[in-house]
Design a protein that fits this description.
The complex is a heterodimer. Chain A is mainly α. Chain A contains three helices and no strands. The radius of gyration of chain A is 19 Å and the shape is elongated. Chain A has a single domain, classed as Helix Hairpins (Orthogonal Bundle). By secondary structure, chain B is mostly helical. Chain B is 74% helix and 3% strand. At the A-B interface, α1 of A face α25 of B.
């Protein structure tokens, strides 16, 4: 499959994530949108990695070139998981304090 | 010999430190002993150095490297040659007598102030010694600034009096104007000759053509410095005001030593001036003009010290005339004799003021010869010396200068002779009004009149002796062949100049005629003034017409006030009201207002809405993305 499709999909996912973060007020949905953006990047990394690896294989059947990007994907997934745990904890604390998960209530840093 | 050279300035410095630091716990006799002792020590060493120089051995003592930048090296070096050793003797000798005099004159002061006075006096002598001993212009300049500082401190010695403080400030500011000229001259020399050393500058200048532009510029700038320190037109107005200081200070600083620094400097740079006849002309004209102007003012002054102050300005003018016509020996000779008789006159005036309980107006004196016999006789001798009556010292030195002026241009001689007549007239007016006639003061003052104690009269007697015989060091050719001892002594210093400005000596018949005419005229004006003012009665009449102009010092102070002070003040008011208040304050306040306004607007961005922050972040990312697209 041509690489373009992957890119279009990833960009679409990323934009959906950005728009979601910008427009929604529910903290959990914002969180999900951030995950969406991270996964869009992961998808792109995988797609490019595959592409580079295929082109390298054409020259040398034994090569591992182009596969390093896949490692980053794992890193990102791990970081995202850690972030989710911290973020969810924050959301829980937020709910306990103001009985809502609406981020617009959290504007007390203003003053 | 080198170590002795260092001791000459170090002794007064030590005296300054001891008296200055111990002013609160040293007793007056101890302070006097230290103050006078260190100067006496310097004098004795100066004598040793003098005889060393006399036997033909000059000393160059290099203490340490003072400044070293790139190729320029300025050593802290002292030079003892005939010229500086002569000045050393004048400074320490006359200085010692004045220190002794001060112990009695200042004894009414409280202890800390008494010690403060002596420490200043010692510091002054130290600076003056640096000035004349320095082997390059930079060391000379250090001393030059030091004596200016001490002059300021001592004029404003009674610092609780605002008027005295103003006089001190005036002296300092006037001197600074001159100092700038001196400083620029040094910079120019260093830039052009690559050194400020006397020997190197003179050897490099010696091969330059006469009236070279650089030489004329340097010598004129040096002369600007000299006009400040030595009270010449246009910077002379500080000297009469400087009489606010204690009288011994006037005698030491403003008559005998500091004010002759300019003459020393030009005599030291004689080769430069000989090679720049244009500057020499300027020096001669300025000197002569000052001599005449100050003499006319002195005719109508009633303050005993003011008369002497203007007479000092006038005599300094003669010295510059001497320098200007190439009579370097004559000028230095006059410095020496002037130091004797003017210090004597000032100290005599101090003795009178002391006896009169700080009365300085000669209209309220008269007939003092009855109560102050020693002061009277010594003062009379001083007057005879300054008037130029043979065989007193002033006659020889003034005559030498005037003769040299005649050789250069007879007009200079006639004008100078006119000034000399005025000198004789105002000095004997001063003498007659003070010591002759009837006493015109109050009864209380008359009751307290007394001769001053020995520490005051002894220096008077010594100085009177010197004022009488000092002239025999320079007997002119027409009286006895090769009797001009001073010329022989100083000839190595002025050798290069004499060689370049050779001239035929004038016929002896002319010289005799000039001599006879001047002596007769001077005697006539002495007799006239003596007769006129011995019968002086204080009628309280205001001066009118020309006399009023002279009594008001040609309104020079008012003129300076109008052309310098008033415009300066107007500019300051303008700068304060317009530039400072609207422009500078406007800029400063404007910055504040812009920041204030800007931050108030920026604060609106900080809404606390997470969404808006993220939106800004995204927009910024997109903008940077676009920018980096186009940057490629």
């Amino acid at each position: 499959m041509p690489i373009n499709y992957y890119i279009f999909l990833a960009v679409a996912l990323f934009c959906i994530g950005v728009v979601g973060v910008l427009t929604r007020r529910n903290a959990i949905i914002i969180f999900m949108c951030i995950e969406l953006m991270l996964n869009a990047v992961n998808l792109l990394l995988i797609a490019f990695s595959k592409m580079h690896h295929l082109s390298a294989l054409a020259l040398d059947a034994q090569t591992k070139a182009g596969t390093e990007a896949q490692l980053f994907v794992f890193f990102i997934m791990v970081v995202a998981a850690a972030e989710v745990s911290v973020g969810l904890a924050i959301i829980v604390m937020m709910y306990r304090n103001i009985h809502s998960v609406d981020v617009n209530f959290l504007n007390r840093l203003k003053h | 010999m080198n170590n002795l050279v260092y001791l000459v300035p170090l002794l007064p410095l030590a005296g300054f430190l001891i008296n200055g630091l111990g002013r609160n716990f040293l007793s007056k006799p101890l302070v006097s002993l230290i103050g006078c002792g260190v100067i006496l020590g310097s004098f004795v060493i100066s004598l040793v150095l003098f005889f060393d120089v006399k036997s033909g051995h000059n000393t160059l003592a290099n203490a340490f490297e003072f400044i070293r930048v790139g190729k320029l090296s300025i050593p802290f070096a002292f030079q003892i040659d005939p010229l500086s050793s002569l000045f050393l003797l004048i400074i320490t000798g006359v200085g010692f007598l004045i220190h002794v005099y001060s112990t009695a004159y200042m004894k009414e002061e409280a202890e800390p102030h008494f010690a403060r006075y002596f420490s200043y006096l010692n510091l002054f002598v130290f600076s003056m010694l640096l000035l004349v001993m320095g082997a390059n212009y930079v060391i000379m300049f250090i001393g030059w600034e030091g004596v200016g500082l001490c002059s300021y401190l001592l004029i404003g010695y009674w610092f609780r009096n605002t008027e005295y403080n103003n006089a001190a400030k005036k002296a300092f500011v006037m001197n600074r104007i001159g100092d700038l000229g001196f400083l620029l001259a040094i910079f120019w020399m260093i830039q052009y000759f690559g050194s400020a050393d006397f020997a190197q500058v003179f050897s490099k200048a010696g091969i330059m053509p006469s009236n070279d532009k650089v030489l004329v510029g340097i010598t004129l700038l040096l002369f600007v410095g000299a006009t400040g320190k030595s009270a010449q037109i246009p910077l002379y107005t500080w000297l009469p005001d400087a009489m606010a200081g204690p009288t011994p200070v006037s005698a030491l600083i403003h008559a005998a030593t500091m004010v002759t620094a300019g003459i020393y400097m030009i005599a030291r740079s004689n080769l430069l001036y000989t090679l720049a006849p244009t500057s020499q002309g300027v020096v001669a004209i300025v000197g002569l003009t000052t001599a005449i102007l100050a003499a006319t003012i002195a005719l109508k002054q009633n303050d005993i010290k003011k008369v002497l102050a203007y007479s000092t300005v006038s005599q300094l003018g003669y010295m510059f005339l001497g320098l200007g016509v190439g009579a370097y020996t004559g000028a230095v000779f006059h410095v020496m004799t002037h130091a004797f008789f003017k210090a004597l006159l000032f100290l005599g005036a101090g003795s009178v003021i002391h006896a009169m309980h700080h009365e300085q107006d000669i209209r309220k004196m008269g007939g003092l010869s009855k109560w102050l016999p020693i002061t009277h006789i010594t003062f009379l001798l001083g007057c005879l010396a300054i008037a130029g009556i043979p065989p007193f010292s002033g006659f020889f030195s003034k005559d030498e200068i005037l003769n040299a002026a005649f050789e250069k241009n007879p007009v200079l001689y006639y004008v100078g002779l006119g000034g000399a007549l005025m000198t004789a007239y105002y000095m004997f007016r001063l003498y007659a009004m003070t010591f002759r006639g009837k006493f015109r003061g109050t009864h209380e003052q008359e009751h307290h009149l007394h001769e001053s104690p020995a520490p005051i009269t002894m220096p008077l007697i010594v100085l009177a002796f010197l004022a009488v015989v000092g002239g025999f060091l320079g007997i002119p050719e027409i009286f006895a062949k090769d009797a001009h001892w001073l010329e022989h002594f100083l000839s190595p210093v002025f050798a290069a100049s004499t060689e370049r400005a050779k001239h035929e000596p004038m016929p002896h018949s002319t010289e005799w005629t000039l001599l006879a005419v001047s002596v007769v005229l001077i005697l006539a004006s002495v007799v006239w003034a003596w007769n006129k003012f011995s019968r002086y009665e204080d009628k309280g009449i205001e001066e009118t017409g020309f006399g009023k102009i002279l009594a008001n010092k040609w309104y020079v102070d008012e003129l300076y006030d109008a052309i310098v002070n008033k415009p300066l003040r107007a500019i300051s008011v303008f700068l304060n009201n317009v530039v400072e208040k609207s422009a500078i304050d406007g800029i400063v306040n404007g910055f504040g207002r812009v920041v204030n306004y800007g931050s108030r607007q920026l604060r609106l961005l900080q809404s606390g809405q997470v969404g808006s922050y993220i939106l800004l972040m995204v927009i910024a990312s997109v903008v940077f993305f676009i920018i980096q697209l186009f940057m490629k």
